[in-house]
Each structure stands twice: as structure tokens, then as C-alpha cells.
């Protein structure tokens, strides 16, 4: 059974600092891994999708890496802004979809 | 990007009534849609996988007679919470997959409050 863990559960940083969010998964038989952002009381917004054959994906200030052999993915957010405050979820897609518990991020002005 | 619309965004109902939530993929055909519920400060819990034209596959512990899912077309799936009770109050979110192993797109969620 796939288990997805996100560490830390919460993170508070001053504006401008880089963010590093970690996601680990136990079953490497995935066909993709996706990072999402969720604002309070809202649905999820897709940030980056990494196919199993890829090592990383980049979009603007966001960069996500994937290492299937070690069961890890990392989301980097450069030069954080208060608007980046949200909960970030990673999801591993194999036979089933499995979400991590999320990392709540607070970027202080 | 692809858009998934969910309706209603908020619903309040009396205990014992049934509530229907719709999930539509607006600009793509979704052969598979997923339904989740989320309790406060917790992650998403997958409830069921909905495949167009066939019965939904429910996750362990989810009552299929309580949470009726219908995926009648490639762009619409519905979740009906039957005989709702206060413990069913939650945030329900749907998602749709673009392609067999493509990106997931999520609806905005529906907050159900059962009085």
C-alpha cells in the first residue's frame, strides 16, 4: 500500500526566503507525481506534474524534482512571497491516487 | 488549462435530507473522475473512483449506499449524500483526469453542512 509523507507539516519563513518542501513515497511504481496548492476553504490548484520518466519540472519560481529510486520529490519555491502562503500537497499516482498530509506554509511579510 | 466545475460550492441542509453535488469537466472529456472528502486541517481522503458508464469503485470504509456516485457522461459525475447527518458535514472535492495517466484537475469543492 502506497504511503505518502510530507515533511515538515508546517513551515513559516520570512518573505524572500526560498522554500523547500519534501514529499516521500513508499512505492516507486508510480506513473506520475503532482504537486498542488490549496488555499483555505478552496479546491486544489495544480502546480507541477512530473511524469515517472522525468527528473524535474519547472514553472516560474517553482521547481519540483523526482527521484523514484529513493521515493522522494522536492518542491522548491524561490524568493517566497506572502501570496505563497497556502497548504501544499503532493500526490503520487500509481494504481491508486495517494496524497500526502500536506505542508502548511506561512510566508511573513 | 483544463477546468473542472463543481456545484454547489456551499450547501446547508437538514438532517435526513439528500444532497447532490455535481462535478463537470468543462473543456475535456474525463473518463475517470474522483471524489474526495476533507476534514478540517486534514488531507484529502479518496472516497471513490468514478468511471463513465460503469459503477464507481469505492474505497474501503466508504458506504456506497450512503454516497451515491453517478458518472452518466464523459463530462459529468454526481455525488449524492443520502439521508445526510451532521457527521457527513465536510468539504467534498472532485477531480477529473485528462487522459489515461494525465494531469488531475480539481473542482473548487463543496462545503456541506448538515444541521
How would you describe this protein?
The complex is a heterodimer of chains A (109) and B (115). By secondary structure, chain A is mostly beta strands. Chain A is built from no helices and 11 strands. In chain A, a hairpin with a 3-residue loop joins strand 9 and strand 10. Chain B is mainly β and 115 residues long. In chain B, 0% of the residues lie in helices and 52% in strands. Chain B contains no helices and 11 strands. In chain B, the strands form 2 sheets. In chain B, strands 2, 4, 5, 6, 9, 10 and 11 form a 7-stranded mixed sheet that branches. The relative contact order of chain B is 0.32. The model of chain B has no long low-confidence stretch (mean pLDDT 89).
Summarize the structure.
The complex is a heterodimer of chains A (109) and B (115). Chain A is mainly beta and 109 residues long.
Secondary-structure blueprint:
The complex is a heterodimer of chains A (109) and B (115).
Chain A: E1 4-7, E2 10-14, E3 19-25, E4 32-38, E5 44-51, E6 56-59, E7 62-67, E8 72-77, E9 86-93, E10 97-99, E11 103-108
Parallel strand pairs in A: 2-11
Antiparallel strand pairs in A: 1-3, 3-8, 4-5, 4-9, 6-7, 7-8, 9-10, 9-11
Chain B: E1 4-7, E2 10-13, E3 19-25, E4 32-38, E5 45-51, E6 57-58, E7 67-73, E8 76-81, E9 90-97, E10 104-106, E11 110-114
Parallel strand pairs in B: 2-11
Antiparallel strand pairs in B: 1-3, 3-8, 4-5, 4-9, 5-6, 7-8, 9-10, 9-11
Task: Report the average pLDDT across residues of chain A.
Answer: 92
Basic shape of chain A:
globular
Question: What is the end-to-end distance of chain B?
Answer: 37 Å
Helix content of chain B: under 10%
Determine the number of helices of chain A (DSSP H or I, runs of at least 4 residues): 0
Strand content of chain B: over 45%
Keywords:
heterodimer; A: 109 residues; mainly beta; six-stranded mixed beta sheet; 59% strand; B: 115 residues; seven-stranded mixed beta sheet; four-stranded antiparallel beta sheet; 0% helix
Amino acid at each position: 500500500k502506497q504511503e505518502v509523507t510530507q515533511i515538515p507539516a508546517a513551515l513559516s519563513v520570512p518573505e524572500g526566503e526560498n522554500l523547500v518542501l519534501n514529499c516521500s513515497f513508499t512505492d516507486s511504481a508510480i506513473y506520475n507525481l503532482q504537486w498542488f496548492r490549496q488555499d483555505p476553504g478552496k479546491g486544489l490548484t495544480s502546480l507541477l506534474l512530473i511524469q515517472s520518466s522525468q527528473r524535474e519540472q519547472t514553472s516560474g519560481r517553482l521547481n519540483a524534482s523526482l527521484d523514484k529510486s529513493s521515493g522522494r520529490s522536492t518542491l522548491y519555491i524561490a524568493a517566497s512571497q506572502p501570496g505563497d502562503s497556502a497548504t501544499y500537497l503532493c500526490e503520487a499516482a500509481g494504481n491508486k491516487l495517494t496524497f500526502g498530509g500536506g505542508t502548511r506554509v506561512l510566508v511573513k511579510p | 488549462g483544463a477546468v473542472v466545475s463543481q456545484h454547489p460550492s456551499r450547501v446547508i441542509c437538514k438532517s435526513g435530507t439528500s444532497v447532490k453535488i455535481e462535478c463537470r469537466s468543462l473543456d475535456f472529456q474525463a473518463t475517470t473522475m474522483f471524489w474526495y472528502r476533507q476534514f478540517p486541517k486534514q488531507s484529502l481522503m479518496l472516497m471513490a473512483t468514478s468511471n463513465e458508464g460503469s459503477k464507481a469503485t469505492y474505497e474501503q470504509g466508504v458506504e456506497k449506499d450512503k454516497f451515491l456516485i453517478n458518472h452518466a457522461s464523459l463530462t459529468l459525475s454526481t455525488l449524492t449524500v443520502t439521508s445526510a447527518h451532521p457527521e457527513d458535514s465536510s468539504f467534498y472535492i472532485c477531480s477529473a483526469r485528462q487522459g489515461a495517466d494525465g494531469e488531475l484537475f480539481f473542482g473548487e469543492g463543496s462545503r456541506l453542512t448538515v444541521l
